[in-house]
């Protein structure tokens, strides 16, 4: 008896939970630390996927970043100088960074507002474009990758994805809620068959459907617009949400519908005042699933949209942030982290609804 | 005036008959109980009155107006469901006010009625609670309260007490009876519990197999059952039955047991079922006329307190009798039990009707 006896239940449940948590959360951990790692740390293979490091795994030197003469600078040898006092100053604000070196009349700024270590270029030496003219100690962890996103259409893609998601959710709820109620409650010929058929349509993968769909998209003249997505995403969100909602509607005690009818409600009033409020957690769940499904959709987004500005987030990231076989891991992971935020926020806000059983107390 | 008339009402589900043609009149302000075993059609009958089931044939009139083609909301009825059917997202006040709000009753009037009903049912402190925060008994009272607020002519109850524990059920039984005397609505109450039926109803309707077996006051149902089903259904412990032959004013049961049967009965020989209630079998002679001693052996004794239910056997078979604990019955006792023939019944073995 005593300590072990008391915590045995906890030990058992944690023993089951920990492997699951490790499995489920590890990708997020990796994405998050990658998005904040300086490139030097990121490409230091022995330091991956571990926590931020201060020094190189091989040389045990602090991570440095080379300062390179901009490629845009004229190719001819140039005279450049560093003014005394410039090379050790730290930029105090982003708005007014202090120059750290001058090449001719051009000024090379600190690429990040981190600590500046040394610029060891003798006075009067010449440097060509892409020459290393100094090194800078890198900031680790760093928000460089996130800042870089501002120079890409990332926020535009986010906007497209959010807008599409919202429109798809509205469309899905408007169509799936009445459909699910009819299939779950009303007795009509063939409602079982229709219910199963609706679910089967969800099982057909988009990779098969995108070619016929592109014909529709072309015929409607909505290709390369957000409308092509708003109209095609419901083809998988509606069946899924209808199926999901049927279960919720079935769990509504029939007696409270009957009581509403006896209390003087018409069928529409009964739906609006009794059934819908009771299945609200279910509708919210369906809305979240519809949002998540459309937010992460890839195939239609890739095929129906051709201009960079109209891309959705997943397509934009993978198309624009991978050049050939070069993966910009930092910005990629930064956009993955930012991209998962809307879903995390939506889930977080509605967690209480998932957990609380709204129907408790309805019957018995 | 809210008299409920059922005329040859039938209900079929496909090939099966749930209700096989019943006629019934429930008078204004009467408390009528539909009672019977499960599947006897009592709930279906109630739901047809409510309009939740269509009638397959026949007519239902409420207050003289045929309602078979009216939706439930136009029938001037309120109903209390077995599972209470409270709206889980509304507090107690809104649960009770909902039907009035739908009917656009003025806010002041709603407030007055809800508060009055809440006062009667002792729900005033709970008005702001959600159903899930209430106990089973409180939920039950909210369901009754919501029905009462309507002040409809007819109140329907579908086994409203069956989800309560035994003690609360007895208490609510009294409460509902008191309530009926107060609100004077016509009440139709469905239950499978014959004790509930006997204690609460002005009249009880005993149903079996989709048919009405008897409509009677509790006393009539107990004293003058029309048939073997009613005789066996009403009363606890249930009536004892022995099959036998009726020959020359005597009932011959198995094992050579012969009982005189004083009432006028058909002549000649007839196959009958002899029925006698446990409480009409006495341990010692009371001196009443018409008692017949039957040699028996006590097998099991079940004391309930003051009363004892004993199981005994005689030549004709096993039966139960009600005795008092001070009678001192013990298993294996051999004694002559007195059958009160004046209160025994004979049923036709084929038609099961009382003779």
Structure description:
The complex is a heterodimer of chains A (about 375) and B (about 350). Chain A is an alpha+beta fold. Helices cover about 55% and strands about 10% of the residues of chain A. Chain A has 15 helices and eight strands. In chain A, the strands form three sheets. Chain A has a four-stranded antiparallel sheet, with no helix packed on it. In chain A, strand 7 (about 320-325) and strand 8 (about 325) form a beta hairpin. The longest helix of chain A has about 35 residues, at about 5-35. Chain A starts with a helix and ends in a 9-residue tail after the last helix. In chain B, helix 5 (about 165-185) links the parallel strand 7 and strand 8 (about 185-190). In chain B, helix 2 packs across helix 3 (about 105-120), helix 2 (about 90-100) packs parallel to helix 4 and helix 3 packs across helix 4. The longest helix of chain B is centred in the middle third of the chain and has 18 residues, at about 165-185. Chain B is elongated and about 75 Å long.
């Amino acid at each position: 008896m005593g300590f072990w006896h008391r915590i045995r239940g906890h030990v058992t449940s944690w023993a089951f939970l920990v492997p699951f948590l490790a499995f489920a959360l590890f990708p997020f951990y990796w994405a998050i630390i990658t998005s904040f790692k300086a490139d030097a740390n990121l490409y230091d293979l022995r330091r991956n996927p571990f926590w931020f490091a201060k020094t190189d795994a091989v040389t045990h030197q602090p991570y440095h970043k080379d300062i390179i003469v901009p490629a845009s600078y004229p190719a001819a040898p140039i005279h450049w100088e560093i003014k005394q006092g410039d090379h050790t100053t730290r930029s105090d604000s982003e708005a007014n960074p202090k120059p750290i070196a001058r090449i001719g009349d051009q000024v090379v700024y600190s690429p990040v507002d981190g600590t500046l270590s040394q610029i060891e270029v003798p006075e009067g030496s010449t440097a060509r474009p892409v020459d290393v003219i100094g090194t800078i100690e890198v900031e680790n962890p760093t928000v460089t990758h996130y800042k870089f996103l501002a120079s890409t259409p990332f926020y535009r893609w986010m906007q497209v994805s959010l807008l599409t998601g919202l429109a798809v959710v509205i469309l899905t709820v408007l169509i799936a809620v009445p459909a699910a109620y009819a299939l779950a409650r009303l007795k009509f010929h063939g409602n079982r068959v229709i219910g199963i058929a609706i679910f089967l349509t969800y099982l057909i993968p988009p990779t098969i459907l995108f070619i016929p769909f592109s014909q529709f998209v072309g015929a409607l003249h909505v290709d390369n617009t957000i409308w092509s997505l708003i109209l095609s995403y419901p083809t998988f969100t509606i069946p899924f949400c209808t199926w999901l909602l049927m279960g919720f509607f079935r769990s509504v005690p029939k007696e409270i519908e009957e009581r509403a009818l006896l209390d003087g409600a018409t069928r529409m009033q009964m739906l609006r005042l009794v059934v819908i409020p009771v299945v609200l957690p279910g509708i919210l769940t369906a809305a979240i699933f519809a949002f998540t499904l459309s937010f992460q959709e890839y195939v239609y987004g890739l095929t129906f949209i051709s201009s960079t500005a109209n891309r959705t987030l997943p397509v934009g990231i993978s198309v624009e942030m991978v050049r050939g076989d070069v993966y910009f891991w930092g910005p990629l992971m930064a956009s993955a982290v930012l991209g998962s935020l809307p879903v995390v926020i939506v889930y977080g806000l509605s967690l209480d609804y998932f957990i609380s059983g709204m129907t408790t107390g309805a019957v018995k | 005036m809210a008299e409920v008339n059922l005329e040859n009402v039938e209900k079929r589900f496909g090939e099966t008959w749930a209700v096989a043609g019943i006629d019934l009149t429930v008078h204004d302000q009467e408390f009528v109980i539909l009672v019977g075993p499960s599947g006897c059609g009592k709930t279906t009958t109630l739901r047809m009155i409510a309009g939740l089931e269509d009638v397959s044939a026949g007519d239902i009139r409420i207050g003289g107006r045929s309602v078979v083609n009216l939706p439930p909301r136009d029938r001037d009825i309120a109903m209390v469901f077995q599972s209470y059917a409270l709206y889980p997202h509304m507090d107690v006040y809104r649960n009770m006010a909902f039907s009035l709000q739908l009917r656009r009753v003025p806010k002041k009037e709603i407030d007055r009625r809800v508060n009055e009903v809440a006062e009667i049912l002792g729900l005033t402190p709970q008005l702001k609670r959600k159903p899930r925060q209430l106990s089973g008994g409180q939920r039950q009272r909210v369901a009754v309260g919501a029905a009462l607020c309507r002040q409809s002519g007819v109140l329907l109850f579908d086994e409203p007490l069956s989800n309560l524990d035994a003690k609360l059920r007895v208490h609510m039984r009294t409460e509902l009876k008191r309530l009926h005397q107060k609100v004077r609505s016509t009440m139709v109450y469905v239950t499978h519990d014959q004790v509930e039926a006997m204690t609460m109803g002005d009249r009880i309707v005993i149903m079996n197999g989709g048919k009405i077996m008897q409509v009677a006051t509790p006393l009539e149902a107990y004293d003058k059952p029309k048939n073997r089903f009613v005789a066996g259904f009403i009363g606890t412990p249930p009536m004892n039955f022995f099959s036998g032959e009726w020959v020359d004013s005597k009932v011959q049961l198995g094992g050579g047991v012969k009982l005189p049967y004083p009432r006028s009965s058909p002549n000649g020989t007839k196959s009958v079922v002899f029925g006698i209630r446990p409480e009409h079998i006495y341990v010692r002679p009371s001196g009443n006329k018409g008692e017949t001693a039957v040699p028996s052996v006590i097998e099991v004794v079940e004391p309930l307190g003051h009363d004892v239910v004993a199981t005994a056997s005689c030549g004709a078979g096993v039966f139960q009798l009600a005795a008092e604990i001070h009678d001192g019955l013990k298993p294996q006792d051999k004694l002559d039990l007195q059958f009160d023939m004046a209160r025994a019944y004979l049923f036709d073995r084929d038609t099961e009707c009382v003779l």
